[in-house]
Design brief:
By secondary structure, the chain is mostly beta strands. The protein folds into two domains: 161 residues, Sandwich (Jelly Rolls), CATH 2.60.120; 169 residues, Jelly Rolls. It is 11% helix and 41% strand. The strands form five sheets. Strands 3, 5, 6, 11, 13, 15, 18, 19, 20, 21 and 27 form an eleven-stranded mixed beta sheet that branches. Strands 1, 2, 4, 7, 8, 9, 10 and 12 form an eight-stranded antiparallel beta sheet that branches. A hairpin with a 5-residue loop joins strand 8 and strand 9. The longest helix is centred in the last third of the chain and has 10 residues. It starts with 11 loop residues before the first strand and ends with a helix.
Length: 365
């Protein structure tokens, strides 16, 4: 990051938008009189729109802003954003539009963090720096059966930047398990090889209230397997709400590096994030990031548990919930819910070998 008072030589600023799709010098606005003519573009069902593209130069994407008129769950999950670096054929970023920008579980939320924001819950903002050496392309695809009449966007970037040899490529990976599998930790980042830095993730949970009633779902611990870890991880947290800096459950809040910007206690749907900006997680050979699905039955709901007649387990052992509550005031048990995540990381390769984005049938209920 350059000092505010500096202007690096041979570095030029460009904005790609509907008024200047090619981000070319002196080519903004379509009309000869320079008036506002084309602030948005339509995106028909099944079609793709190139938001920005550059070839033959280095540069850094500095900011992405988007808004669309239809911000329904179908469109948030059915539109996908893909980013390609240096002519690669596989995208380094491939995610549903909403989830990439922090609007998880198909719902918009008002929040601000160090890297993402939606000031009034109507827009999509990202300011993660994304360097490229020889070119880049960002594509938005409408994979729904409904056309979107108005896509507004700005992709703000510089070209001609002198990148250091160790500059890494930005990646994002989305996945969902509905439901998760008992005793199998949910993978926020599946195993990837290479050198890089884990930036963090937006995570969404739709708790299964039919199966578990309105009980706390977030006792699971985040585990980070680094550089050859096979059995036990190098890094391990103490609980879901602990990982995002709060305690004793999750209410709604949004801080720079951690937050729970969606906390619907009626529908039991939650969206939360942790950004490792100040506490970097580096990896030099490989990384895998997971979180457990563990619930907690407190004394107030233990009577309901007995009424259900369910055999609960924690690890490989059956839980005597009454005894657990008597001894500790709570009891832990394995559970399954609808989990999804969009993870962000830098990698020393323009492509990863992670699975492609699932079909819309997996993303949209």
């Amino acid at each position: 990051m350059n000092e505010l008072y500096s202007a690096p030589r041979n570095v030029h600023t460009r904005w790609a938008s509907p008024e200047n799709p090619s981000a070319s010098a002196g080519k903004a606005t379509a009309g000869s009189d320079g008036r506002k003519r084309r602030p948005s573009v339509p995106l028909a069902a099944g079609e793709s729109l190139t938001l920005a593209q550059v070839t033959g130069t280095s540069g850094i994407i500095r900011r992405i802003w988007i808004t669309i008129r239809d911000r329904s769950p179908k469109m948030l999950r059915g539109m996908r954003i893909d980013m390609y670096w240096d002519g690669s054929s596989r995208p380094a970023v491939s995610a549903p539009l909403g989830d990439f920008f922090g609007h998880v579980v198909g719902r918009m939320a008002t929040f601000q963090s160090a890297l993402f924001s939606s000031p009034e819950g109507r827009s999509f903002n990202c300011c993660i720096p994304m360097p490229f050496r020889t070119g880049m392309k960002i594509v938005l695809t409408n994979e729904t059966d409904t056309s979107e009449a108005m896509v507004f966007y700005d992709v703000d970037f510089t070209v001609g930047d002198a990148l250091p040899d160790d500059a890494l490529y930005f990646h994002a990976h989305w996945r969902r398990e509905n439901p998760t599998t008992a005793l199998r930790d949910y993978a926020i980042v599946p195993a990837i090889a290479g050198r890089g830095r884990f930036i963090g993730a937006h995570i969404g949970v739709k708790a299964d209230t039919k199966q578990w009633l309105k009980t706390w779902w977030g006792e699971g611990e985040v585990k980070v397997y680094l550089d050859g870890d096979t059995g036990m991880p190098t890094l391990c947290g103490t609980g879901t709400e602990d990982y995002i800096g709060t305690a004793w459950g999750q209410g709604q809040y949004a801080h720079l590096h951690q937050g729970c910007h969606l906390a619907d206690h009626e529908k039991y749907q939650y969206g939360f994030y942790r950004l490792h900006v100040l506490d970097p997680i580096y990896f030099h050979r490989d990384i895998r990031v997971t979180i457990q699905q563990i619930g907690c039955w407190d004394p107030q709901t233990s009577a309901q548990l007995h009424g259900l007649g369910r055999a609960l387990r924690h690890g490989d052992s059956a839980v005597d919930m009454a005894a657990a509550v008597t001894a500790a005031g709570y009891g832990l048990f394995e559970r399954t819910d609808d989990w999804s995540s969009c993870a962000y990381f830098y990698l020393d390769q323009a492509e990863s070998q992670l699975p492609a984005l699932p079909a819309t049938s997996v993303r949209i209920e």
